[in-house]
Amino acid sequence: MLDDDIRTTTSATILADGDGDSPRRTGVWFIGGRGSVATTATLGLHAVSRGLAPETGLVSQLEEVAQAGLVGFDSLVVGGHDVGTHSLADRAAELAEGGVFHPALVAALREELDAADRRIRPGVPAGGHQREASDRIQQDLTAFRDEHGLDRVVVVDVSSTEPPAPDHPALHDLDRLEQELDAGRAPLPPSSLYSYAAFRAGCPVVAFTPSTGPNIPALADLAKEAEVPWAGRDGKTGETLVKATLAPLFARRALHVRSWAAMNLLGGGDGRTLAEPAAAVSKTTTKALTVQSIVGYPVEGPVRIDYVEDLGDWKTAWDHITFDGFLGTRMTMQFTWQGCDSALAAPLVLDLARLVARAHEVGESGPLAPLGFFFKEPIGASTHALDEQWATLTRWCARLAPTP
Amino acid sequence: MLDDDIRTTTSATILADGDGDSPRRTGVWFIGGRGSVATTATLGLHAVSRGLAPETGLVSQLEEVAQAGLVGFDSLVVGGHDVGTHSLADRAAELAEGGVFHPALVAALREELDAADRRIRPGVPAGGHQREASDRIQQDLTAFRDEHGLDRVVVVDVSSTEPPAPDHPALHDLDRLEQELDAGRAPLPPSSLYSYAAFRAGCPVVAFTPSTGPNIPALADLAKEAEVPWAGRDGKTGETLVKATLAPLFARRALHVRSWAAMNLLGGGDGRTLAEPAAAVSKTTTKALTVQSIVGYPVEGPVRIDYVEDLGDWKTAWDHITFDGFLGTRMTMQFTWQGCDSALAAPLVLDLARLVARAHEVGESGPLAPLGFFFKEPIGASTHALDEQWATLTRWCARLAPTP
Amino acid sequence: MLDDDIRTTTSATILADGDGDSPRRTGVWFIGGRGSVATTATLGLHAVSRGLAPETGLVSQLEEVAQAGLVGFDSLVVGGHDVGTHSLADRAAELAEGGVFHPALVAALREELDAADRRIRPGVPAGGHQREASDRIQQDLTAFRDEHGLDRVVVVDVSSTEPPAPDHPALHDLDRLEQELDAGRAPLPPSSLYSYAAFRAGCPVVAFTPSTGPNIPALADLAKEAEVPWAGRDGKTGETLVKATLAPLFARRALHVRSWAAMNLLGGGDGRTLAEPAAAVSKTTTKALTVQSIVGYPVEGPVRIDYVEDLGDWKTAWDHITFDGFLGTRMTMQFTWQGCDSALAAPLVLDLARLVARAHEVGESGPLAPLGFFFKEPIGASTHALDEQWATLTRWCARLAPTP
Amino acid sequence: MLDDDIRTTTSATILADGDGDSPRRTGVWFIGGRGSVATTATLGLHAVSRGLAPETGLVSQLEEVAQAGLVGFDSLVVGGHDVGTHSLADRAAELAEGGVFHPALVAALREELDAADRRIRPGVPAGGHQREASDRIQQDLTAFRDEHGLDRVVVVDVSSTEPPAPDHPALHDLDRLEQELDAGRAPLPPSSLYSYAAFRAGCPVVAFTPSTGPNIPALADLAKEAEVPWAGRDGKTGETLVKATLAPLFARRALHVRSWAAMNLLGGGDGRTLAEPAAAVSKTTTKALTVQSIVGYPVEGPVRIDYVEDLGDWKTAWDHITFDGFLGTRMTMQFTWQGCDSALAAPLVLDLARLVARAHEVGESGPLAPLGFFFKEPIGASTHALDEQWATLTRWCARLAPTP
Ligand SMILES: NC(=O)c1ccc[n+]([C@@H]2O[C@H](COP(=O)([O-])OP(=O)(O)OC[C@H]3O[C@@H](n4cnc5c(N)ncnc54)[C@H](O)[C@@H]3O)[C@@H](O)[C@H]2O)c1
Ligand SMILES: NC(=O)c1ccc[n+]([C@@H]2O[C@H](COP(=O)([O-])OP(=O)(O)OC[C@H]3O[C@@H](n4cnc5c(N)ncnc54)[C@H](O)[C@@H]3O)[C@@H](O)[C@H]2O)c1
Ligand SMILES: NC(=O)c1ccc[n+]([C@@H]2O[C@H](COP(=O)([O-])OP(=O)(O)OC[C@H]3O[C@@H](n4cnc5c(N)ncnc54)[C@H](O)[C@@H]3O)[C@@H](O)[C@H]2O)c1
Ligand SMILES: NC(=O)c1ccc[n+]([C@@H]2O[C@H](COP(=O)([O-])OP(=O)(O)OC[C@H]3O[C@@H](n4cnc5c(N)ncnc54)[C@H](O)[C@@H]3O)[C@@H](O)[C@H]2O)c1
Ligand code: NA
Ligand code: NA
Fold first, then answer.
1. CA A377 to CA D54: how far, in whole Å?
2. What angle do CA D292, D295, D297 make, to 5 degrees?
3. Are the beta carbons of D347 and D43 closer than 8 angstroms?
4. d(Cα A252, Cα B60) in Å, to the nearest integer?
5. Please, what is the average pLDDT of chain C?
6. CA A305 – CA A317 distance, rounded (Å)
7. Of the residues B2, B381, C315, D367, which has the fewest C-beta atoms closer than 10 A?
8. Its family (chains A, B, C, D) (predicted)?
9. What angle do CA A351, A278, C285 make, to 5 degrees?
């Protein structure tokens, strides 16, 4: 059961020329590069590199994962697209004021933030002439790679969550998609346009948001064709993370879950976006799957995401669970999670960039099922249980390990 | 890391003559047979056998565990020792009134309860002439086995938690122990006396309480010598179960746990016993180990058990956790668990009896490390993480599986 | 500030002929007489009368309230309307199975339940010829009064919550309303039709639901004209009760409430009704007013009501509050309320019937502001703070007290 | 019932010469002047005076309280005793780092903090020659009053909680006490020695800690004799505040409280002190009284205070309440309070200094029962219910109001 998630893994012998220690320069290209997650990741990358902060939260620094032979933090260069124009330093100052990290870090890393800021290019809005937009994105990616002498560039989508995209035949068929783009039309939601351009430019993609992104048949085919790997979707950082950890308890103790209700309160930019019901649909859909998929039967209960401006980046979730034990005895569990969203997401984004870069290096392509550990909706994988995902991830990392 | 817990497993070939379907009659002998856990287990065994209740809560009925080839519920016969004299039916009625199970079950199973009641023999108090007491216990066990034509009898300790036993040289040396017993002295706490007698009678032991029981060098040697397996200690049913499930989340996401405080409120007989500080020491000690052992560093925070008579069997636990994320950001999680203690413990007691019986059947002896999944203090095992314990348990069950 | 709520109170001298001890027979007529609240109230009335249950939950038995000189439980006779046809005894058995009260009470009071059952008349649906329907309701009320020799009948609306009623000129003008009814039309929502008929029959009304009921100008005028008192609306039994108690803490300690988010989970018949968004609007609107009205400024935060079938009558609410203290320090409070809705509502319904009957006896008419203590939306009163409501209620009861 | 708390109130005519607007210079003398509460109060006083912070948390700025005619913040001068020697500015910086207030305030008010620092005199330890110590304290107080031209000095005890003092005949008899002091002995706990010296110097006292302080017969007599008022004891800032607010809900709804369990987690200096069981006794005793006193019958349940260093000043309390409703139905409520202790206590300390100064001005003496609103153990008052305390406080303030 654990093994079916690691279909894509290449054999250890191919890894022989991979070398965990060689200075492989790698680009991390953030779609939404001026957002909270990207800003925290950018600042944090430099803080950790320069020894100003510990490695807390970085899964890729745990021995079981690091064994994969990942690129060093020193070798990462950050760039990105964003439709916003505020400076990274300003956003970082705001986040520090909101308690996401210590203000001293912003002062100490001002130069690094400004340099990264200059590498952020204007994003593309919805609609327009998507062939032209795609060409421009590819040029940005290629220019970035060339200018910084990068071995590869991983595109990481951390832009605002989109509403679910209306269906279109072009999403299901790559040829049809190319025709539409050539015709100057705009069949793709922006997140998918970025993925299209990334794959065309030979770049792996991390879909950290619940938006459509690479997750349509036409782009899945393109990724295979272009021989690039991708991973998604929707980073698992808070309430769903706890669900994925707790639900196995009920399954393995043969306790019957009768209801699981979830309320999420959040402020911040992401909260504002999700306050719009259309965008929230993408999110609550991916969140609701977790429990049912782990226990193996439908479980009633609402999943709510509500905007509370005052909470800022501090997402607060309350879950209430009723379950039956032996002889039908009814019991209850509830938890409250008070997490800082950007501080939880940022290290995962760096972990994913490093892991996907390594997968690219050893020649993997298509959806990377072993990365399900990181996602609310683990594309290509069959389990939502965190423990099984961890076992799968670490076995995969062991296989990616460079031979000594 | 996972594998070091299954040292005791015998090879699959030995299992060839084990046959999961043959009618192997097995005795379950409860020390504390009139207590809440034993009463619920006795009632529940018959309720499930007769199809009056679903299999909820029975881990041994999950496919991954059942594959070990376990004795059927129909083939279990319950007996026991207790120092109390109230009837099983009366205790069952009390538990039903307290909401532990439906009153209709007590009415429907009145006959079975009365029959089991007649198989409960007077327990032994602390002190006295322990050689004589031990002989009497052995006779009780042998008579039970003979009278009911049992293939084996598993002794399950679900009696009141003892205060920690004072140390004595006889606890560390089997010869010395025998001399003390022969001399008419009483070096053993009652729980260990029962284990001694069980081993001498060739019976496997399940130490479901935090009392000393079989967990002293002299008895460990005796079990090996007598070639009987045993498992312990202290059933993991509530707050510690959640700890064992949640702590891995922090470890695997590289989140640093700064404090973990736990308050347990409980009424009932067990609550009354633990309200005495001396008895509580045994319990809070085993509970505190879990988190530290999983995350790998010391974590501050009190562990409290308080008696609230009004709660009866409904144990309520509140845990409050503080942790650091990326860049040192402080976050908080808390949970409240409202579980029915006896309803949680009773099925595990049946699971353990079946699993230990199977281990005995295939010739295992000594502490059964793969059963750590069930215990707060998993004797012989190195991990407290529930997911690793599950993986170990199910692999062990696969090896015990009868060859077709 | 406290005093402006008791405008309607008549002077103590008028009360001279009121006599708290005389056997004044009083009818309690439930709209929704077969629902959970009405069933629990009916059963409970008899349980308390016959000494089978303590007076827990009955505010009208507290000395400060009882001093008003209320009719005895023995002198209450229950009847009602309902559109459903299941028997009271069946509903009571269901509620007992769900843990609302002990099954033994249902057995012991079977006769009383059956007698009450026979006094429940068919309810009226929405629409139809409302003059005819009203006439029939009035006849039912008058027949009940005559048959049982009652001094008065208090009509208590505990029927299913309606969606908000569409506005209509007839709701604002009694003459216009009469014309519409005469013309065979149906301008009123059912809850208001019952109130219309009650007032016409000279009966006081308790609006325990959030439905429109008597709370429209045309009916307010009618009540004055008919010289009958009424009280409303929406019984305050759970989360709002806690809000009304806690919000004054913040106000009086000058702590600034920044957000107050509320999630309500409930099953049962009421939960099913509220699961329909249209009906929920009535409820969330009255719930949201409380905090803002007490602290005196707008407070952000969602108010959710979600249906979780499994919870049955056990409403579970979680509220999360953020607030500022001295120097702007941010703090948090949260609470979880696990209440049994019908057990909380039923005694209030009896309290209100007794209090409104007493008000009628002493000649009060129109909305009874001093009863705000009982309601989420206290008609006629200016405060939502429970402590001020309590002070107002008890002072009013002191004035209603029969002179010795 | 409400009125019996305001026995000490002088009549309004006496207040005629009191004038709320005249510049009455008032000293606030902190015992424990370098502690967290005193530091926050000192910083906050200047922050509010200079308009750098809003008046949040200051009860004395609410209209109902301010009407008493209180001295302006500009007219307060801070001094104190402390046995510690760290600077106020250093402690303030630490508190800011711990999130108690914004670091910018420390920078902006550096000068004011340093000036206050210079007015803190060495404290007296336990034991020694208490007559000499008392003389020195009186000299410090008199010198402070003279140097700053103060109309009066209010002594506020915010020093570390003492263990309960051993009883001694001198505590019960003022003459006997004087003899002991003259004889060079040390019968008083330090907190009471400070109170003794304060009363001798004609200064009112606020006992904000649970220590003995003025609360012994000998000192009560001295205060009367010296015609100075005092108030105490143990500021009500967190879990007890919520208890005092919530318990009336149960009382007034006739709900029967069956158990009320409380767990308090706290770090900081106060937490460290209370981690010593002897000191904690003073605290848990005053905390446990609240509920029982409000509902009027004994309620079982533990009250725990545990030290969790990591929490710093952020006290986290969890309370779990079980109660019966109508027909004996069992229900549950729980709350979690996450408050910043110093930010909650500091404004109350300023409120109390202003209110006690006003009482002194109008000639009140002895324990000020109307200030029970502020204390866990309200000396001289009969109620613990926050709402009744609020009513009493505001009526008292109305009587203190200067005539226009
Ligand atoms: N923080 C978490 O824990 C977490 C977890 C899972 C998923 N996510 C997802 O990550 C994303 C980012 O979250 P955030 O908190 O940083 O949000 P944010 O609002 O702070 O940042 C989003 C950024 O995307 C930019 N953007 C919007 N449309 C764009 C476009 N078409 N092209 C380029 N840039 C565009 C915005 O200008 C903004 O700077 C969200 O979709 C969120 O749902 C976050
Ligand atoms: N219920 C749970 O979730 C759980 C979990 C882990 C461990 N346990 C442990 O299981 C044990 C039983 O719990 P319970 O709730 O049934 O308690 P209980 O008090 O209801 O029952 C204990 C029984 O042991 C009997 N007993 C006491 N001393 C004895 C002796 N010397 N010989 C024989 N019998 C003796 C008592 O008379 C009583 O009938 C306790 O030690 C408890 O700590 C329970
Ligand atoms: N239980 C509480 O704590 C509480 C608190 C405040 C308000 N309320 C309100 O009390 C009402 C009753 O709650 P419940 O739990 O008993 O609900 P319920 O669904 O069990 O009962 C409602 C009853 O009303 C009847 N009914 C529906 N339409 C009718 C009509 N037109 N004429 C006559 N009868 C009609 C139904 O047949 C049903 O028997 C609801 O409106 C609820 O919102 C309840
Ligand atoms: N913060 C709250 O919410 C709160 C509420 C109620 C009561 N209290 C009480 O207020 C007191 C102060 O709390 P804190 O958090 O500021 O504690 P703290 O430990 O930060 O400060 C106490 C100060 O008292 C000084 N001190 C000790 N013994 C002394 C002595 N003999 N003479 C003079 N100074 C002495 C210490 O040096 C220290 O500076 C404690 O007793 C606490 O229990 C606080
Ligand atoms: Na797990
Ligand atoms: Na109150």
1. 46
2. 60
3. no
4. 10
5. 91
6. 9
7. B2
8. Belongs to the myo-inositol 1-phosphate synthase family.
9. 115
Residues B85 and B170 in one domain: yes
Flag if B310 and D259 touch (Cβ within 8 Å).
yes
The model's confidence at residue C95, banded by pLDDT at 50, 70 and 90, is very high
In the prediction, which pLDDT does A382 show?
87
CA distance A130 to A119: 22
Q: In angstroms, rounded to a whole number, what is the distance separating the alpha carbons of residues C242 and C244? A: 5
CA dihedral sign, ordered C344, C350, C355, C360: positive
Helical segments of A205-258, H only:
217-226, 239-252
In this predicted model, what pLDDT tens digit does every residue of B326-371 receive, in sequence order?
999 999 999 999 999 999 999 999 999 999 999 999 999 999 999 9
The residue assigned the tokens 């007649």 is B118
B337 in contact with D at a CB cutoff of 8 Å? Answer: no
The ligand that comes nearest to the alpha carbon of residue C294 is: 6
Whether C102 and chain D come into contact, CB under 8 Å, resolves to: yes
Residues 6+ apart with CB under 8 A from D174: D218, D219, D221, D222, D225
As a residue count, chain A comes to 404
Query: Tell me, what CATH number does B361's domain have?
Result: 3.40.50.720
Asked if residue D148 and residue D80 are part of one domain, the reply reads: yes
Helices first, then strands: H and E counts in chain C = 14, 11
Residues B247 and B212 in one domain: no
Confidence of residue A12 (pLDDT cuts 50, 70, 90): very low
Distance in angstroms (rounded) separating the CA atoms of residues A387 and B390: 10
State the ligand closest to the CA atom of C127: 3
Residues B377 and B228 in one domain: yes
Share of chain A above pLDDT 90, in %: 83
Q: How far apart are CA D284 and CA D271, in angstroms?
A: 13
Q: Do A259 and C311 touch (CB under 8 A)?
A: yes
Q: Which domain holds residue A284?
A: 239-340
Residue of A nearest to B103 (CA): A327
Q: State whether D80 and D186 are in the same domain.
A: yes
Where among A317, A340, A363 does a domain terminate? Answer: A340
Domain-ending residue, one of D322, D340, D358: D340
CB D5 within 8 A of CB D382: yes
Q: What is the pLDDT of residues C269-325, one digit of tens each?
A: 777 777 767 666 666 666 668 899 999 999 999 999 899 999 998 999 999 999 999
pLDDT at position C21 over 50: no
Structure tokens at B388: 């690793």
Q: How far is A16 from chain B (nearest CA, A)?
A: 25
Residue whose Cα lies nearest atom 6 of ligand 4: it is D235
Instruction: Give CA separation, D170 vs D174, D197, D213, in Å.
Output: 7, 15, 14
Q: In angstroms, rounded to a whole number, what is the distance separating the alpha carbons of residues A82 and A42?
A: 14
Structure tokens at B359: 């281990």
The number of distinct structural domains making up chain B is 2
Residues B49 and B70 in one domain: yes
Whose CA is closest to atom 3 on ligand 4? D341
Half-sphere exposure of B269 (CA within 13 A, CB side): 17
| C256 neighbourhood in chain D, CB within 8 Å | 54, 56
On whether both A62 and A121 belong to a single domain, the answer is: yes
CB-based burial, A89-128: b 16+ in 10 Å, e otherwise:
bebbbbbbebbbbbeebbeebeebbeebbebbbebbeeee
Which residues in chain D are contacts of C390 at CB distance < 8 A?
A: 248, 252, 387
Task: List the 9-48 stretch of C: residues with Cβ below 8 A of D.
Answer: 40, 43-44, 47
Mean of all residue pLDDT scores within chain B:
91
Looking at the structure, tell me whether residues D135 and D279 fall in a common domain: no
Q: Quick check: C338 and D333 CB within 8 A?
A: yes
Say which CATH number the domain at D301 has.
Answer: 3.30.360.10
